Amino acid sequence: MSRIIISFVLVFLGLQLFAQYEVNDNCMRAYRAIISLDFDEGRLWLEKEKAENPDNLIPVYYENYVDFLTLLIGEKESDFNILKPNKRERIKILEKGDATSPYYNYCLANVYLQWAFARVKFGQHVNAFFEIRKAYRLLEENRLDFPGFLPDNTGMGLLHALVGSVPDNYNWITDIIGMDGSVNEGVHELQQVVDSAINNKEYAHLLPESLFFLTFIQLNLSKGEQEALEIKQMLDSLPSKNPLIVFAKVSILMKTGHNDEAIEVLTNFRQDLDAYPFHYLKYLLGLAKLNRLDEDADRPLLKFIIYYEGKNYRASACQKVAWHHLIRGDILGYKENINKALFYTDGIVEEDKQALMEAESGIIPNAALLKARLLFDGGYHEQALRELQKAERDNHFESIAEQTEYYYRKGRVYHEMKEFDQALSGYKTAIEKGKGLKRYFAGNAALKSGNIYELLEDYEQAEKMYNKCLSLNFTEYEKGIKAMAKAGLNRIEE
User: Fold this and answer.
1) Last residue of some domain: 227, 258, 275?
2) Are residues 1 and 145 in the same domain?
3) Residue 311 and residue 309: Cα distance in Å, rounded?
């Protein structure tokens, strides 16, 4: 009890009392450079700080941030093998720090957490599992000893949201780790950091990171599009040259049907030549242009394939270039580019898996349905509906899969147009026709039906549809869809 009282007093008086963990001007300059991906400038400020204050351990933590972002954005196996030994050395240094400081567990936890996410990128799930468990326990211990230490909410908020979205059949994993939480809890914790960062200079440096995580949760685990747009307004107040902030803004715009604005942001963005290249933004620009059916949509995708050296999204980029040709009636161009996806088999993201499945199947997608899908993804709902109606008149659906997709896409369009009765009707038919398919249409139709019933506060039907989603057997996008269904159940049970 006395330690908790002392902790409250220390936090109240200011965390600069811990000389080993001084977030001073040098560190702030380094942090701003690092999250802007200008790693060389960040390292210069960290070296200056280490020369002036050799006992300060914050530079050690920020150096790990450089490695983390390098691996997260670059996704190069060679970098991973070179940088991996750094983690052990940094942990050794940080473990010699002042254990009476709230920054002691905080820095250690975040180093473990960053390496866990990096390992997931390279398929090392077992090691990632143990590092997440270590991070969670360190943050839990910090909460007991320093309950007023706000920075803990960043990592904890992300972990609680992720745990809250784990499907029931994977609960044994969280039981082993000893973790619990919910999406709403995670959002609340991160929102606390955002609010404090806006109103308190002491925590201002936490704003970009907490907004970035909050964006991820709102887009992937929550159903709050309006909340995501509110986050976008806060992101607008941050430096427009920061590629991570641009990525977060564009992700929100593309997920909320503001495709034209996303294209404008990406087209106008020029990354500093000294910064670590964020080639994924070229991929996003290609997707956004493809959704608008632009004539030059293939150009940024081809640039991404040429310049990006990482393992993920290259097969997907080949698929999207193939789609660009297919919707223009160029079957030969489609076949040529979809076959190129077969050269990029090391990707572990779902988009690459779907691209490889399409390439290996030899089945050419229905061009009319594909065009409707792209327009829908761009938020051009009326155009998408016209394409579906035209396709129905032309009787383009030759298989159960195409029939299922037609009703699913019809449901999606009406859903976004807030014509819920017609949306539910489309989803119902898609579930009935597609429940025996490995495609994602029936599963996502059940998920989206649950979203509608939840919005209408018919929680009994919402629960039924979320559970229906979890019970269906499909392989496409299964983890993501079922995670969102579990998150939906989690919301309505609170």
Assistant:
1) 275
2) yes
3) 7
> Is 170 among the domain residues?
no
Number of domains, the chain = 4
Q: Measured between alpha carbons, how far is 158 from 481 in angstroms, rounded to an integer?
A: 19
Positive or negative, the CA dihedral 279, 283, 284, 288 is positive
421 part of a folded domain: yes
Between CA 425 and CA 117 the distance in angstroms is: 40
Residue 340's Cβ-side half-sphere holds a number of Cα atoms within 13 Å equal to: 18
Distance CA 156, CA 153 (A): 5
Say if CB 100 and CB 69 are below 8 A apart. Answer: no
The 10s digit of each residue's pLDDT in 376-427 is: 999 999 999 999 999 888 776 879 999 999 999 999 999 999 999 999 999 9
111 in Cβ contact with 91 (< 8 Å)? yes
Where residue 477 falls (left for φ over 0; alpha for ψ -120 to 50; beta otherwise) is left
- Tokens representing residue 49 in the block: 């700080």
Residues 88, 105: Cα–Cα separation, whole Å? 16
Task: Please check whether residue 51 is in contact with residue 233, taking contact to mean a CB–CB distance below 8 angstroms.
Answer: no
Residue at a domain's end among 258, 275, 292: 275
Q: Are residues 130 and 7 in the same domain?
A: yes
Domain that holds residue 143: 1-149
**Local structure of 423: helix, strand or coil:** helix
Question: How does pLDDT run across 230-280, given as a tens digit for each residue?
Answer: 888 888 887 778 898 899 899 999 988 899 999 999 999 998 888 999 999
Answer for the pair 55, 78: CB distance below 8 angstroms, yes or no.
Answer: no
